[in-house]
Amino acid sequence: MNIDLSGKKALVCGSTQGIGKATAQQLAEMGASVILLARNEYKLKKVSKELKGKGKHGFLVADFSRPEELRSIINQYSREAGPIHILINNTGGPPGGPITEAKTEEFIQAFSNHLICNHILVQAVLPGMKSEKFGRIINIISTSVKQPLKGLGVSNTIRAAVANWAKTLSNEVASFGITVNNILPGATSTGRLKSIIDNKAQKSGNSIADAEAEMLKEIPAGRFAEPSEIANAVAFLASPAAAYINGINVPVDGGRTSSL
């Protein structure tokens, strides 16, 4: 099975922590040259130095709350540095809360941070992928695509929009050797999970330990995922071995999602 990424360049968003960082590390170990993208330059430099493998690694500083700035940065990079073969769209989720209490501004901001920025990046990298006849676009979304999660109204809405955007895109680019797939992480040991648990505890009046135990009851595996376990699924879809897997949603959730 060919999972060698030597000679390939990967752009990994949100890659200074959590799933994004674990994915960058995995792709680097598989031979890819990894370009990190996030807004914190200090953290980017630190993670970039930690990457292993035989590729040449680097980073771009960009803030997804300023999409036009992102467009300028990625377009310039694409012109100067050549084709990007693998794009990992990964952005921190919007704040939790009931959808009935969500402000319209929250939907607009989340739509921009996720779908619009994903689209800007895709339009910048597609010409290079087409010329190379190889492309992997992988979006880190959420199991809410299949089963909306309680208390995450804005996130549920926007994640579904990204999933349908990705499915439409997959149909349009498949003939160029490009695949587009979505990874749907379940509860994963990241800073975002901690904030969700803290929020649940605060609203319910229970302890953090009780809130965590309540979440674990919903997971057949009986534990939270490690970021590296999500990264492993991403890495396979990024490899040459996954060339005929296109336009799908892959839950990596320990069996929590009730639907197939």
Topology:
Layout: E1 9-13, H1 18-29, E2 33-38, H2 41-50, E3 58-61, H3 67-81, E4 86-89, H4 104-132, E5 135-140, H5 153-173, E6 178-185, H6 191-204, H7 208-216, H8 227-238, E7 249-252
Helix pairs in contact: 1-8, 3-4, 4-5, 6-7
Please give a structural write-up.
The chain is α/β, with parallel strands linked by helices and 260 residues long. It has a single domain (9-187, 226-252), classed as NAD(P)-binding Rossmann-like Domain (Rossmann fold, 3-Layer(aba) Sandwich). Helix content is 47%, strand content 14%. It has eight helices and seven strands. The protein has helices at 18-29, 41-50, 67-81, 104-132, 153-173, 191-204, 208-216, 227-238; strands spanning 9-13, 33-38, 58-61, 86-89, 135-140, 178-185, 249-252. A seven-stranded parallel beta sheet has the order 3-2-1-4-5-6-7, with helices on both faces. Helix 2 (41-50) links the parallel strand 2 and strand 3.
Write the CATH fold name.
Rossmann fold
Average pLDDT, all residues = 95
SSE order: EHEHEHEHEHEHHHE
CATH architectural name = 3-Layer(aba) Sandwich
Total number of strands: 7
Residue share in helix: 40-55%
Radius of gyration: 18 Å
Distance between the termini: 27 Å
How large is the count of helical segments? 8
Overall number of structural domains: 1
> CATH superfamily membership, which one?
NAD(P)-binding Rossmann-like Domain
Structural class: alpha/beta
Query: How would you sum up the major sheet?
Result: 7 strands, parallel
Report low-confidence residues grouped into runs of 5 or more: none
Shape descriptor reads globular
* Beta-strand share of residues: 5-15%
CATH class: Alpha Beta
The largest sheet has its strands arranged as 3-2-1-4-5-6-7
